[in-house]
Each structure stands twice: as structure tokens, then as C-alpha cells.
Amino acid sequence: MKKPQFEKVTMLPFWKPEEEGEQIEGVIQNLHEIESNYGKQMVCDIGDYSVGISAGLAPLTNLVGQYVRLTYQGLLLNEKTGREFHSYLIEKAVL
Predict the structure, then answer these.
(1) Domain residue spans in the chain?
(2) Rounded to whole angstroms, what are the CA distances from 85 to 45, 55, 67, 72?
């Protein structure tokens, strides 16, 4: 039996935008669950990055295989809870 050849498997870096207007784009792939400091979290790959799926990015789970662009809109305040949250604009390519 012929021995298989192997290649190194690397994980994409996580996208952690800091400035309003930062963008990534690409096809949503590899939707999976990981263990994080806060328990289980869904993540997906978009372009050259892995993206953690927070409440604001939940629609991504229904767009696997679609080409999207994410734009970070900064921290916003939820007036009901008084808590800040990260806001994103999710755009889907129209062919």
C-alpha cells in the first residue's frame, strides 16, 4: 500500500476589526462550531479570515456558499439594555 502524503493544516486568522469601515469579503465556507472561552461558538471562513458568528452576524449561517461583504460599523449602544455591541453591515453579492 502506498503511503499517503501530508500537508500542514493551518487555521485562518480571526477577523477582529477595530476601525469603523473595515471590510472583508468572500464566499462563506466551513461553517463549524468551536470551543471558546465563552463556551461553544459558531464560526465560518470568509475570504482569508475566520469569523466568529455573534448575534449581529447570525444571518451568515443562512448564507453559506454565498459571496458576501462585511463592513464593521463600530460599537453601538442598545438603548433598552444599556450595553454596547459590535455592529456590522452584511451585503450579499447579486449576480
Answers:
(1) 23-92
(2) 22, 9, 25, 11
